[in-house]
Amino acid sequence: MITFTVSRNGNKAKFRVPCKEDDIRDVQSQLEIQYDTDTRVYIDGVDSNAPELCILEGQNGNLDFMNLLGRVMYGMDCGEFEQFRAGLFVEEPGDITEIINLAQAVDRYSLIKEDDLRESGLDHEMNLRGAIPKAEIEKTNYVAIAQKLLDSGECEDTPYGKVYVNKDHPISEFFDGKHMPAYYDRHCQYAVTLRNENGDEDCMFLPCTRAELMRAAARLHTAFPNDLTYEIDDTELEDERLGQYMEGADIQTLNEYAGLIDNMDSEETEKFIAVVDYCQQYFKGADNPRNILKICKNLDSFSYVSGIDNCRDLGDYLIAESGDYNYDADLDNYYNYEAFGEDYLGEQAGRFTEHGYVGINDWETVQHYLSSDAMEMGGM
What we know:
By secondary structure, the protein is α+β, with helices and mostly antiparallel strands. Among the domains are: 190-262, no CATH class; 266-377, no CATH class. The chain has 15 helices and 15 strands. The strands form five sheets. The protein has a four-stranded antiparallel beta sheet with strand order 2-1-3-4. The termini are far apart.
Protein backbone atom coordinates (compact mmCIF):
# COMPACT_ATOMS: atom_id res chain seq x y z
CA MET A 1 0.00 0.00 0.00
CA ILE A 2 1.23 3.48 -0.92
CA THR A 3 -0.39 6.69 0.26
CA PHE A 4 0.22 9.66 -2.00
CA THR A 5 -0.54 13.23 -1.05
CA VAL A 6 -1.68 14.87 -4.26
CA SER A 7 -2.82 18.35 -5.21
CA ARG A 8 -4.59 20.22 -7.99
CA ASN A 9 -6.46 23.51 -8.26
CA GLY A 10 -5.22 24.56 -4.81
CA ASN A 11 -6.75 21.44 -3.20
CA LYS A 12 -5.08 18.45 -1.59
CA ALA A 13 -6.17 14.83 -1.12
CA LYS A 14 -4.85 11.49 0.06
CA PHE A 15 -4.67 8.83 -2.62
CA ARG A 16 -4.12 5.27 -1.42
CA VAL A 17 -3.21 2.60 -3.96
CA PRO A 18 -4.07 0.06 -5.12
CA CYS A 19 -7.63 1.30 -5.27
CA LYS A 20 -10.92 0.93 -7.10
CA GLU A 21 -12.45 3.24 -9.67
CA ASP A 22 -14.70 4.88 -7.06
CA ASP A 23 -11.60 5.95 -5.13
CA ILE A 24 -10.18 7.67 -8.21
CA ARG A 25 -13.47 9.48 -8.72
CA ASP A 26 -13.44 10.53 -5.05
CA VAL A 27 -9.95 12.05 -5.37
CA GLN A 28 -10.98 13.84 -8.57
CA SER A 29 -13.94 15.28 -6.68
CA GLN A 30 -11.79 16.42 -3.74
CA LEU A 31 -9.38 18.11 -6.14
CA GLU A 32 -12.29 19.70 -8.06
CA ILE A 33 -11.16 18.11 -11.33
CA GLN A 34 -13.95 18.84 -13.77
CA TYR A 35 -13.66 15.95 -16.23
CA ASP A 36 -13.52 12.30 -15.23
CA THR A 37 -11.07 11.68 -18.09
CA ASP A 38 -8.56 14.01 -16.42
CA THR A 39 -6.28 12.16 -13.98
CA ARG A 40 -3.38 14.63 -13.82
CA VAL A 41 -2.15 15.58 -10.34
CA TYR A 42 0.91 16.93 -8.56
CA ILE A 43 2.58 14.56 -6.08
CA ASP A 44 3.32 16.39 -2.83
CA GLY A 45 4.23 13.39 -0.71
CA VAL A 46 4.72 9.60 -0.71
CA ASP A 47 4.21 7.35 2.31
CA SER A 48 5.40 3.80 1.66
CA ASN A 49 7.50 1.03 3.19
CA ALA A 50 9.74 1.46 0.16
CA PRO A 51 11.37 4.80 1.07
CA GLU A 52 13.08 5.04 -2.32
CA LEU A 53 9.68 5.94 -3.79
CA CYS A 54 10.06 9.42 -2.30
CA ILE A 55 11.80 10.27 -5.60
CA LEU A 56 8.25 10.80 -6.92
CA GLU A 57 7.67 13.72 -4.58
CA GLY A 58 7.57 16.97 -6.49
CA GLN A 59 6.70 15.28 -9.79
CA ASN A 60 3.57 15.41 -11.88
CA GLY A 61 1.54 12.24 -11.65
CA ASN A 62 -1.35 10.38 -13.24
CA LEU A 63 -3.87 8.68 -10.95
CA ASP A 64 -4.25 5.68 -13.24
CA PHE A 65 -0.51 5.11 -13.48
CA MET A 66 -0.01 5.67 -9.76
CA ASN A 67 -2.67 3.03 -9.16
CA LEU A 68 -0.87 0.71 -11.59
CA LEU A 69 2.25 1.00 -9.43
CA GLY A 70 0.16 0.11 -6.38
CA ARG A 71 -1.32 -2.90 -8.16
CA VAL A 72 2.09 -4.18 -9.22
CA MET A 73 3.50 -3.78 -5.72
CA TYR A 74 0.45 -5.42 -4.16
CA GLY A 75 1.05 -8.47 -6.34
CA MET A 76 4.54 -9.03 -4.92
CA ASP A 77 5.29 -11.62 -2.28
CA CYS A 78 7.68 -10.77 0.59
CA GLY A 79 10.76 -11.95 -1.28
CA GLU A 80 9.87 -10.04 -4.43
CA PHE A 81 9.25 -6.90 -2.42
CA GLU A 82 12.70 -7.17 -0.84
CA GLN A 83 14.20 -7.53 -4.31
CA PHE A 84 12.15 -4.54 -5.49
CA ARG A 85 13.41 -2.29 -2.71
CA ALA A 86 17.00 -3.41 -3.32
CA GLY A 87 16.55 -2.74 -7.04
CA LEU A 88 15.24 0.76 -6.32
CA PHE A 89 18.30 1.46 -4.17
CA VAL A 90 20.75 0.16 -6.80
CA GLU A 91 19.16 1.58 -9.95
CA GLU A 92 17.88 4.94 -8.58
CA PRO A 93 15.00 5.25 -11.09
CA GLY A 94 13.91 8.79 -11.84
CA ASP A 95 10.18 8.53 -12.46
CA ILE A 96 7.16 6.28 -12.17
CA THR A 97 7.71 4.76 -15.61
CA GLU A 98 11.16 3.50 -14.64
CA ILE A 99 9.88 2.34 -11.25
CA ILE A 100 7.03 0.27 -12.75
CA ASN A 101 9.35 -1.31 -15.30
CA LEU A 102 11.82 -2.16 -12.54
CA ALA A 103 9.00 -3.70 -10.51
CA GLN A 104 8.37 -6.10 -13.39
CA ALA A 105 12.00 -7.19 -13.41
CA VAL A 106 12.74 -8.03 -9.77
CA ASP A 107 14.40 -11.31 -10.77
CA ARG A 108 17.28 -9.08 -11.91
CA TYR A 109 18.24 -8.62 -8.24
CA SER A 110 19.54 -11.48 -6.08
CA LEU A 111 19.75 -10.72 -2.37
CA ILE A 112 22.63 -12.53 -0.70
CA LYS A 113 22.03 -13.04 3.02
CA GLU A 114 25.22 -14.16 4.72
CA ASP A 115 23.28 -15.80 7.54
CA ASP A 116 21.44 -18.05 5.07
CA LEU A 117 23.67 -18.72 2.08
CA ARG A 118 21.82 -21.85 0.98
CA GLU A 119 18.49 -20.03 0.64
CA SER A 120 20.25 -17.10 -1.06
CA GLY A 121 21.89 -19.40 -3.59
CA LEU A 122 18.61 -21.16 -4.31
CA ASP A 123 16.79 -17.84 -4.73
CA HIS A 124 19.48 -16.68 -7.15
CA GLU A 125 19.10 -19.78 -9.32
CA MET A 126 15.31 -19.39 -9.23
CA ASN A 127 15.74 -15.80 -10.43
CA LEU A 128 17.78 -17.02 -13.36
CA ARG A 129 15.75 -20.07 -14.31
CA GLY A 130 12.24 -19.56 -12.97
CA ALA A 131 11.81 -23.19 -11.89
CA ILE A 132 14.10 -26.03 -10.78
CA PRO A 133 13.27 -29.75 -10.50
CA LYS A 134 13.02 -30.96 -6.90
CA ALA A 135 15.61 -33.68 -7.47
CA GLU A 136 18.13 -31.09 -8.66
CA ILE A 137 17.45 -28.85 -5.66
CA GLU A 138 18.22 -31.71 -3.27
CA LYS A 139 21.66 -32.41 -4.76
CA THR A 140 22.86 -28.87 -5.60
CA ASN A 141 25.30 -26.97 -3.33
CA TYR A 142 23.56 -23.62 -3.11
CA VAL A 143 25.85 -22.41 -0.34
CA ALA A 144 28.75 -22.58 -2.79
CA ILE A 145 26.74 -20.69 -5.41
CA ALA A 146 25.97 -17.86 -2.98
CA GLN A 147 29.55 -17.74 -1.72
CA LYS A 148 30.82 -17.45 -5.30
CA LEU A 149 28.61 -14.40 -5.80
CA LEU A 150 29.97 -12.82 -2.62
CA ASP A 151 33.56 -13.54 -3.70
CA SER A 152 32.97 -12.08 -7.16
CA GLY A 153 33.26 -8.54 -5.83
CA GLU A 154 30.17 -7.57 -7.84
CA CYS A 155 27.69 -7.46 -4.95
CA GLU A 156 26.44 -4.05 -3.87
CA ASP A 157 25.65 -3.08 -0.30
CA THR A 158 22.09 -1.88 0.29
CA PRO A 159 19.98 -1.32 3.42
CA TYR A 160 18.36 -4.66 2.57
CA GLY A 161 21.54 -6.73 2.28
CA LYS A 162 24.09 -7.43 -0.42
CA VAL A 163 22.67 -7.47 -3.92
CA TYR A 164 23.99 -9.17 -7.00
CA VAL A 165 22.61 -7.70 -10.24
CA ASN A 166 21.84 -10.34 -12.85
CA LYS A 167 22.90 -8.35 -15.89
CA ASP A 168 21.57 -11.05 -18.24
CA HIS A 169 18.08 -10.05 -17.06
CA PRO A 170 17.67 -6.49 -18.38
CA ILE A 171 14.79 -4.19 -17.47
CA SER A 172 12.41 -4.27 -20.43
CA GLU A 173 9.72 -1.78 -21.35
CA PHE A 174 6.59 -3.19 -19.78
CA PHE A 175 5.13 0.31 -19.37
CA ASP A 176 5.80 3.17 -21.81
CA GLY A 177 4.58 5.94 -19.51
CA LYS A 178 1.67 6.80 -21.81
CA HIS A 179 -0.59 3.76 -22.20
CA MET A 180 -1.94 1.16 -19.80
CA PRO A 181 -0.10 -2.16 -20.16
CA ALA A 182 -1.58 -5.64 -19.73
CA TYR A 183 -1.20 -6.35 -16.03
CA TYR A 184 -3.39 -9.30 -15.10
CA ASP A 185 -4.41 -8.94 -11.48
CA ARG A 186 -8.19 -9.09 -11.46
CA HIS A 187 -11.23 -11.09 -12.52
CA CYS A 188 -12.72 -9.95 -15.80
CA GLN A 189 -14.96 -11.22 -18.56
CA TYR A 190 -12.63 -9.83 -21.24
CA ALA A 191 -9.04 -8.59 -21.34
CA VAL A 192 -8.74 -6.45 -24.46
CA THR A 193 -6.12 -4.40 -26.24
CA LEU A 194 -7.51 -1.16 -27.65
CA ARG A 195 -5.78 0.29 -30.70
CA ASN A 196 -5.98 3.64 -32.47
CA GLU A 197 -5.36 4.30 -36.15
CA ASN A 198 -1.66 4.93 -35.46
CA GLY A 199 -1.24 1.51 -33.88
CA ASP A 200 -0.88 2.81 -30.30
CA GLU A 201 -2.25 0.34 -27.74
CA ASP A 202 -3.91 0.46 -24.33
CA CYS A 203 -5.07 -2.56 -22.33
CA MET A 204 -8.38 -2.78 -20.52
CA PHE A 205 -10.31 -5.28 -18.41
CA LEU A 206 -14.04 -5.53 -19.06
CA PRO A 207 -16.44 -4.77 -17.58
CA CYS A 208 -15.16 -1.33 -16.67
CA THR A 209 -16.83 2.00 -15.99
CA ARG A 210 -17.63 4.49 -18.72
CA ALA A 211 -15.00 6.81 -17.22
CA GLU A 212 -12.30 4.13 -17.45
CA LEU A 213 -13.17 3.51 -21.10
CA MET A 214 -13.15 7.22 -21.88
CA ARG A 215 -9.76 7.63 -20.19
CA ALA A 216 -8.36 4.79 -22.28
CA ALA A 217 -9.64 6.53 -25.42
CA ALA A 218 -8.08 9.79 -24.23
CA ARG A 219 -4.71 8.07 -23.72
CA LEU A 220 -5.00 6.96 -27.33
CA HIS A 221 -5.88 10.52 -28.44
CA THR A 222 -9.32 9.41 -29.61
CA ALA A 223 -12.53 11.22 -28.69
CA PHE A 224 -14.90 8.24 -28.85
CA PRO A 225 -14.12 4.69 -27.68
CA ASN A 226 -16.05 3.18 -30.60
CA ASP A 227 -13.57 4.79 -32.99
CA LEU A 228 -10.95 2.38 -31.61
CA THR A 229 -10.39 -1.16 -32.78
CA TYR A 230 -9.76 -3.88 -30.25
CA GLU A 231 -8.42 -7.38 -29.88
CA ILE A 232 -9.57 -9.85 -27.22
CA ASP A 233 -6.48 -11.15 -25.42
CA ASP A 234 -8.19 -13.34 -22.84
CA THR A 235 -11.63 -14.17 -21.52
CA GLU A 236 -13.15 -15.79 -18.45
CA LEU A 237 -16.56 -16.35 -19.99
CA GLU A 238 -18.38 -19.37 -18.58
CA ASP A 239 -19.41 -20.68 -22.01
CA GLU A 240 -17.75 -20.10 -25.39
CA ARG A 241 -21.14 -19.29 -26.93
CA LEU A 242 -21.27 -16.17 -24.78
CA GLY A 243 -18.23 -14.90 -26.67
CA GLN A 244 -19.59 -15.85 -30.08
CA TYR A 245 -22.64 -13.62 -29.54
CA MET A 246 -20.44 -10.51 -29.50
CA GLU A 247 -18.41 -11.14 -32.64
CA GLY A 248 -18.16 -7.82 -34.46
CA ALA A 249 -19.42 -5.75 -31.51
CA ASP A 250 -18.07 -2.26 -30.88
CA ILE A 251 -16.14 -1.78 -27.65
CA GLN A 252 -18.92 0.02 -25.78
CA THR A 253 -21.44 -2.71 -26.59
CA LEU A 254 -18.91 -5.35 -25.56
CA ASN A 255 -18.24 -3.55 -22.28
CA GLU A 256 -21.95 -3.21 -21.44
CA TYR A 257 -22.49 -6.87 -22.30
CA ALA A 258 -19.55 -7.89 -20.09
CA GLY A 259 -21.14 -6.04 -17.18
CA LEU A 260 -24.44 -7.89 -17.62
CA ILE A 261 -22.75 -11.30 -17.98
CA ASP A 262 -20.59 -10.56 -14.95
CA ASN A 263 -23.70 -10.29 -12.76
CA MET A 264 -25.35 -13.51 -13.97
CA ASP A 265 -25.33 -16.70 -11.96
CA SER A 266 -25.13 -20.11 -13.68
CA GLU A 267 -28.93 -20.48 -13.93
CA GLU A 268 -29.32 -17.05 -15.51
CA THR A 269 -26.50 -17.83 -17.95
CA GLU A 270 -28.23 -21.06 -18.96
CA LYS A 271 -31.50 -19.18 -19.52
CA PHE A 272 -29.75 -16.46 -21.54
CA ILE A 273 -28.16 -19.00 -23.88
CA ALA A 274 -31.50 -20.75 -24.34
CA VAL A 275 -33.34 -17.49 -25.04
CA VAL A 276 -30.72 -16.35 -27.56
CA ASP A 277 -31.01 -19.71 -29.31
CA TYR A 278 -34.81 -19.27 -29.42
CA CYS A 279 -34.60 -15.70 -30.74
CA GLN A 280 -32.01 -16.56 -33.37
CA GLN A 281 -34.33 -19.24 -34.74
CA TYR A 282 -37.45 -17.12 -34.86
CA PHE A 283 -36.42 -13.46 -35.13
CA LYS A 284 -34.48 -11.92 -37.98
CA GLY A 285 -31.50 -9.91 -36.83
CA ALA A 286 -31.20 -11.65 -33.45
CA ASP A 287 -27.53 -12.40 -34.12
CA ASN A 288 -26.63 -8.70 -34.17
CA PRO A 289 -24.53 -7.89 -31.05
CA ARG A 290 -26.63 -4.86 -30.14
CA ASN A 291 -29.80 -6.94 -30.31
CA ILE A 292 -28.15 -9.69 -28.28
CA LEU A 293 -27.50 -6.96 -25.71
CA LYS A 294 -31.21 -6.04 -25.72
CA ILE A 295 -32.12 -9.68 -25.12
CA CYS A 296 -29.62 -9.83 -22.27
CA LYS A 297 -31.21 -6.76 -20.66
CA ASN A 298 -34.74 -8.15 -20.98
CA LEU A 299 -34.47 -11.80 -19.92
CA ASP A 300 -37.46 -11.34 -17.62
CA SER A 301 -39.61 -10.98 -20.73
CA PHE A 302 -39.09 -14.68 -21.44
CA SER A 303 -40.18 -17.87 -19.70
CA TYR A 304 -37.64 -20.66 -19.39
CA VAL A 305 -37.91 -24.17 -17.95
CA SER A 306 -34.70 -26.17 -18.11
CA GLY A 307 -34.79 -29.73 -19.44
CA ILE A 308 -38.41 -29.68 -20.67
CA ASP A 309 -38.87 -31.03 -24.22
CA ASN A 310 -42.62 -31.84 -24.56
CA CYS A 311 -46.01 -30.37 -23.72
CA ARG A 312 -46.95 -32.96 -21.11
CA ASP A 313 -43.83 -32.33 -19.05
CA LEU A 314 -44.35 -28.59 -19.46
CA GLY A 315 -47.92 -28.86 -18.16
CA ASP A 316 -46.79 -31.10 -15.31
CA TYR A 317 -44.13 -28.56 -14.30
CA LEU A 318 -46.50 -25.59 -14.50
CA ILE A 319 -49.32 -27.18 -12.52
CA ALA A 320 -47.43 -29.29 -9.99
CA GLU A 321 -44.05 -27.60 -9.52
CA SER A 322 -44.04 -23.95 -10.53
CA GLY A 323 -46.09 -22.76 -7.55
CA ASP A 324 -48.23 -20.61 -9.80
CA TYR A 325 -51.27 -22.84 -9.40
CA ASN A 326 -53.12 -24.50 -6.48
CA TYR A 327 -51.99 -28.06 -7.13
CA ASP A 328 -53.74 -30.92 -5.32
CA ALA A 329 -51.98 -34.28 -5.64
CA ASP A 330 -55.23 -36.10 -4.90
CA LEU A 331 -56.63 -34.74 -8.17
CA ASP A 332 -53.62 -35.76 -10.22
CA ASN A 333 -55.60 -38.15 -12.43
CA TYR A 334 -57.96 -35.34 -13.43
CA TYR A 335 -55.33 -32.89 -14.69
CA ASN A 336 -54.76 -32.82 -18.44
CA TYR A 337 -51.13 -31.85 -18.32
CA GLU A 338 -50.53 -32.17 -22.05
CA ALA A 339 -53.47 -29.96 -23.02
CA PHE A 340 -52.45 -27.36 -20.46
CA GLY A 341 -48.90 -27.39 -21.77
CA GLU A 342 -50.11 -27.01 -25.35
CA ASP A 343 -52.28 -24.00 -24.45
CA TYR A 344 -49.42 -22.38 -22.51
CA LEU A 345 -47.01 -22.93 -25.39
CA GLY A 346 -49.45 -21.41 -27.85
CA GLU A 347 -50.06 -18.31 -25.72
CA GLN A 348 -46.33 -17.68 -25.40
CA ALA A 349 -45.26 -18.67 -28.94
CA GLY A 350 -43.13 -21.13 -27.04
CA ARG A 351 -40.64 -23.61 -28.40
CA PHE A 352 -38.68 -26.56 -27.05
CA THR A 353 -35.00 -25.96 -27.60
CA GLU A 354 -32.02 -28.19 -26.86
CA HIS A 355 -31.83 -26.43 -23.50
CA GLY A 356 -35.48 -26.60 -22.48
CA TYR A 357 -38.72 -24.69 -22.94
CA VAL A 358 -38.56 -21.01 -23.97
CA GLY A 359 -41.54 -18.71 -24.42
CA ILE A 360 -42.47 -15.04 -24.31
CA ASN A 361 -44.33 -13.79 -21.23
CA ASP A 362 -44.16 -10.06 -22.01
CA TRP A 363 -45.15 -9.60 -25.63
CA GLU A 364 -45.31 -5.82 -25.50
CA THR A 365 -41.71 -5.44 -24.32
CA VAL A 366 -40.34 -8.10 -26.65
CA GLN A 367 -42.12 -6.70 -29.69
CA HIS A 368 -40.77 -3.25 -28.83
CA TYR A 369 -37.11 -4.13 -28.73
CA LEU A 370 -37.12 -7.10 -31.11
CA SER A 371 -39.09 -5.27 -33.76
CA SER A 372 -36.78 -2.25 -33.74
CA ASP A 373 -33.41 -2.20 -35.51
CA ALA A 374 -34.75 -4.39 -38.33
CA MET A 375 -35.61 -7.31 -36.04
CA GLU A 376 -38.66 -9.07 -37.40
CA MET A 377 -40.42 -12.20 -36.29
CA GLY A 378 -40.12 -15.03 -38.75
CA GLY A 379 -40.70 -18.74 -38.90
CA MET A 380 -43.41 -18.84 -36.21
